[in-house]
Design a protein that fits this description.
Elements (H helix, E strand, L loop, with lengths): L1 E5 L6 H10 L3 E6 L2 H10 L9 E5 L11 H6 L5 E4 L10 H25 L4 E5 L24 H17 L5 E7 L1 E3 L13 H9 L5 E3 L8 E3 H14 L5 E5 L9 H12 L6 E3 L1 H16 L17 H6 L7 H16 L10 E5 L2 E5 L39 E4 L10 H6 L6 E5 L14 H14 L5 E6 L1 H12 L4 E7 L9 H4 L1 H10 L2 H10 L11 H10 L3 H13 L12 H5 L1 E6 L15 E5 L5 H4 L1 H12 L8 E3 L5
Length: 652
């Protein structure tokens, strides 16, 4: 089947484009820029495509969508037209919204008429929104007066819906109107590229700008995951319904969180105080429109999506079941949005992908991880169901070179170890664990701070088909060592980089929130001086500016700040450490130590181990990835230690 797709580089369009191509459809994608489209294809890992995806340069705001006569001729082969184009910007003024929604609908309908008359077009899919008042019963009715209170963004989307319905009625083709609710991140990883929508609420809660929940127990915010939206539209394309219909992509109200429950979940994940009470959305909207939106950064228009009414899901369930939003998925969405709000503009490079396995977040550098069921939602042939994201699975690695699993420390995150992982010459899968509560990962909620990390890592290690090489840095070294003691058979080699294995008494760990505030507010020169003084980096090293920038941004998150402070305080306690590594663990352990570290020392727990040293600071895996990678390669090849070996006998 051939599909013409507008909006193929957008939040919904990108996963839809990938899914349509993966299912064997020919996709003609409307794009404004070929260079941007190539970047999107790299991001989606579709660079090896053949002729299944064909970009067509055009623009929603131009006559005939800006397409050339030659391009329109090519579209005559299309069976289905999916119109998903248009910005997600509730702050658009009336003129802007008219151009990108109603104007684009007019041009799309005109093009569709030509493709029906001269070509093969038989199905039009229009992506609108759940607040539209139109359906098959009132498709020819003018309801503009009933929605005049809505913001321009919504008004013009509704008028576009009305125009398409009226224009296509005489053509006698199937019109499938898809009304997504508030589109949130991926149903397993939580990845939410678009920080509008739910991100507005997350940002307000994390800044303490939401003392009142917008709506009581009878109010709710209908939501749908972006991958579920793409899966549903792809299913519509494949099935091509015989009759026109309207599909609301949302859950039943009774199965959804009320607004106090939703804001409470967001607050718990961000580790801040929840709203004190509830207030009617209309009252909060009025306060925001009186100037509160500029003060708090919350658009008053955002209150329009909080509703009391229920919507029918019958037609949706006939096409595809299993599109539910659950609390675990929402926690990941909130964590991902929090990360993106702290790090605006940061993106994972094309060789790194986010995965979730056994409840743990991982950055993977190659296809060594085969996604657990639900990571990429698949339609079960003939049944119209999505599989559960919680089905147990193992990480299949048999027959491949042994997997490398990295664990980072605090004042760091998984992506800080990407340069090191990339530098290691190793054909097997390389995965970096994102510690819960840091980076993109939701906090573990275990009653014991340390054991929450240890049990999570041990659970992950047990899921591999064969033992792994476990590489832990700093606090990650402590967690790696304790997890190896817990499941020794799951670890072939334990490589510890500057492991934190003894109590520390420095003020930075006893008063971590104060230290974090100083870090965020100090100049780069002052921070560099302090980092060198503490031995975080050696005096001879240049402190990486990106590292300082990253940590500053990361500590802007109350979630990360609270987690970091909690871990730092634990590191001052003697009872969280191992008095001595067991003989079985020592036999598979190798240690690389930075001699410039002024805070940590080679611990007693490593007695009897051989330790290699480098003349660098605590964060040498970040500042010196090539030297660190060379040492790791030696350990993988069993070439022994080659860098200043020290045999410990009784280090105090």
């Amino acid at each position: 089947m051939n599909v013409f797709l507008t909006g193929g580089t957008g939040f919904i369009g990108k996963p839809l484009l990938k899914r349509l191509a993966a299912e064997g459809h020919g996709v003609y994608a409307l794009v404004r820029s070929l260079s941007k489209f190539e970047t999107v294809l790299e991001e989606l890992r579709m660079t090896d495509r053949d002729q299944t995806v064909l970009p067509m340069v055009g623009d929603l705001t131009l006559p005939k969508l800006g397409l050339s006569t030659e391009n329109i001729g090519q579209l005559l082969a299309c069976d289905t037209f999916v119109h998903a184009g248009g910005p997600m910007n509730i702050g658009l003024d009336l003129a802007e919204a008219e151009i990108v929604f109603r104007g684009a609908a007019r041009e799309a309908a005109g093009l569709a008429e030509s493709l029906v008359r001269e070509g093969k077009l038989r199905h039009f899919v229009h992506v609108v929104g759940f607040m539209s008042p139109y359906d098959e019963s009132n498709a020819l009715t003018d309801l503009s007066g009933a929605v005049s209170h809505a913001p321009p963004y919504e008004i013009m989307k509704f008028e576009a819906d009305s125009y398409i319905r009226k224009a296509l009625r005489p053509l006698e083709i199937t019109l499938s109107t898809v009304n997504p609710s508030v589109v949130v991140g991926h149903s397993v990883t939580g990845e939410t590229e678009q920080t509008g929508g739910l991100g507005i609420l997350v940002d307000a809660v994390r800044k303490g700008a939401m003392p009142l929940s917008p709506g009581g127990t009878d109010h709710w915010l209908p939501m749908v995951h972006v991958d579920h939206t793409a899966a549903f539209i792809a299913s519509l394309v494949a099935k091509r319904p015989a009759v026109s219909d309207t599909f609301y992509l949302l859950d039943d109200k009774r199965d959804s969180l009320s607004m106090p429950e939703l804001t409470g979940l967001i607050a718990r994940e961000l580790r801040v105080k929840p709203p004190l009470a509830a207030a009617p959305p209309v009252l909060i909207k009025r306060l925001l429109s009186w100037g509160g939106n500029r003060l708090l950064g919350i658009p008053s228009e955002s209150m329009n999506f909080i509703v009391r009414k229920e919507f029918t899901t019958t037609s949706k369930e006939r096409v595809l079941r299993g599109l539910a939003v659950n609390q675990e998925a929402l926690r990941r969405v909130v964590a991902d949005l929090d990360y993106r709000l702290s790090h605006p503009g940061r993106k994972l490079s094309g060789d790194a992908t986010l995965h979730v396995h056994e409840g743990m977040t991982l950055l993977a550098l190659q296809d060594g991880i085969h996604p657990a069921a639900g990571i990429t939602a698949e339609v079960i042939s003939g049944e119209g169901n999505l599989p559960s994201a919680n089905q147990p699975s193992r990480l299949p690695t048999t027959g491949q070179p042994m997997p490398l699993v990295f664990v980072h420390g605090i004042y760091s995150a998984a992506e800080q170890l990407l340069p090191l992982a990339r530098a290691i010459k190793h054909d097997g899968p390389k995965q970096i664990l994102e510690l819960p509560g840091l980076g993109r990962a939701p906090y573990h909620r275990h009653p014991s701070v340390i054991e929450g990390y240890v049990e999570g890592l041990a659970r992950l290690l047990r899921s591999f088909d064969e033992p792994v090489v476990l590489i832990g840095h700093s606090f990650g070294g402590l967690i790696a060592a304790k997890a190896t003691e817990s499941v020794p058979g799951a670890v072939r080699k334990l490589l510890l980089l500057q492991p934190a294995l003894h109590p520390v008494r420095k003020a930075a760990y006893r008063f971590p929130k104060l230290s974090a505030r100083l870090f965020r507010r100090g100049s780069f020169r002052l921070i560099s001086k302090q980092l060198k003084k503490s031995g975080t980096f050696a005096m001879s090293e240049n402190v990486p500016e990106d590292y300082v920038r990253y940590v500053r941004e990361e500590l802007a998150s109350p979630r990360v700040l609270s987690t970091t402070a909690e871990i730092a305080r634990q590191l001052t306690r003697a009872d969280v450490y191992l008095p001595m590594l067991s003989a079985s663990v020592r036999n598979k352990a190798a240690i690389l130590w930075g001699e410039a570290d002024a805070v940590w020392r080679i611990p007693h727990a490593l007695q009897g181990c051989r330790v290699d040293t480098l003349p660098f600071g605590h964060q040498f895996p970040i500042s010196r990835p090539l030297e660190t990678a060379a040492w790791i390669e030696d350990q993988l090849a069993d070439r022994g230690n080659s860098i200043n070996p020290v045999l410990l006998s009784d280090t105090p």
